[in-house]
Design goal:
47% of the residues are buried. The protein is an alpha/beta fold and 316 residues long. 30% of the residues lie in helices and 17% in strands. Helix 4 packs parallel to helix 6. The radius of gyration is 18 Å and the shape is globular. Strand 1, helix 2 and strand 2 (62-68) form a beta-alpha-beta unit. Residues 202-207, 234-242, 254-260, 268-307 and 309-316 have low confidence and may be disordered. The strands form two sheets. The protein has an eight-stranded mixed β-sheet, sandwiched between helices. Strands 7-10 form a two-stranded antiparallel ribbon.
Length: 316
């Protein structure tokens, strides 16, 4: 699935940049030729597994474990996996990051750079942002909806992951929007990247879905939004922000799955998001009633954020 030439480049990159072991837990379903009532076939589970197996074969510092979603209830509960295919990345400090779907196109870059980040335990955040993260008193869940053809999505996906690497208060997951249309419709995703900020952990733990916005924003702007969500006066009302940065309309990112899922030549697009020229952004300090806002349902904000549990980074 990954071209041989790119495998050679990735092997060298991992040898040069990986600092510690990274474990990948992959959640899929058993392949069967039988039609099981009520069981939806997982279209992208097989290619996702194949891609992860090829990555794990490139270095001894990446280990891969496979779980069947319907059978391994303990692992599903431990990592709070809600859908498949699901990729859970673990570093040595017990933190974990989730990706739902097949990371193709631009999102392949996100996966590779995140594996390096989590192996090093680095977040690339400024001291100012780190200080603001340390002041968080409640748990926050960040969900970033992406598509393979969106050039702005890796910036937002990696930013959410960096916040989660830096703070145990942040739970981050990236979702391939076109693979989970019902979830995208629930959050009214019309352009990507689309980000949903939930206080108290989000739907998986009975949390409170508070705010969503479209566009790629810098770390300071995202922290502004997180802090607004955490304000006590906002915990009992639905608020929203408008589009806050560059977006790709969903109509331009969906379509023929085969075209959208091709793994891009990595060397041509290998610069980390933090080193790319920053896109032109618009301010995020908008009034709650701003146009083109996307409001999301309320819930109970008293439950903790999803926890990945202890990460055993030995061989799977």
């Amino acid at each position: 699935m990954i071209p041989l030439k790119e495998q050679g480049f990735l092997r060298e990159k991992f040898s040069r940049e990986l600092a510690s072991r990274v474990r990948i837990d992959f959640f899929t379903q058993k392949e069967t030729s039988l039609l099981v009532p009520g069981r939806q076939p997982c279209q992208y589970c097989k290619p996702t597994r194949q891609m992860l197996e090829e990555l794990a074969a490139l270095t001894d510092l990446i280990s891969l474990r496979q779980h069947f979603f319907e059978e391994d209830k303990q692992a599903v509960a431990q990592y709070q996996v809600e859908r498949i295919p699901a990729i859970v990345l673990h570093g040595g400090d017990g933190r974990c990051l989730k990706y739902y779907g097949l990371p193709g196109g631009y999102e392949f870059i996100t996966l590779i750079e995140t594996i390096v980040d989590i192996s090093r335990g680095t977040s690339h955040l400024s001291d100012k942002v780190r200080k603001r993260l340390r002041k968080l008193k409640h748990d926050v869940r960040i969900q970033v909806f992406v598509t393979p053809a969106c050039p702005h999505c890796p910036q937002m996906a990696r930013l959410a992951y960096h916040l989660a690497l830096e703070s145990p208060r942040i739970g981050a997951e990236v979702i391939e929007a076109s693979e989970f249309p019902e979830l995208s419709q629930r959050y009214k995703v019309r352009a990507v990247p689309a980000t949903v900020i939930s206080a108290g952990g989000g739907p998986a733990s009975g949390g409170d879905d508070k705010m969503s916005f479209a566009g790629a924003v810098p770390a300071d702007a995202l922290m502004d939004i997180i802090e607004r969500v955490m304000q006590p006066t906002l915990l009992t009302e639905v608020t929203a922000t408008p589009e806050t940065g560059p977006v790709t309309p969903a109509s331009q990112t969906s379509g023929a799955p085969a075209g959208g899922k091709i793994i891009l030549p990595y060397r041509r697009r290998s610069r980390p998001a933090s080193k790319r020229p920053p896109p032109k952004l618009t301010p995020t300090r908008a009034k709650p009633a701003a146009p083109r806002a996307t409001a999301v349902p309320q819930g109970n904000a008293s439950s903790p954020a999803p926890s990945c549990g202890p990460a055993d980074v030995g061989e799977g």
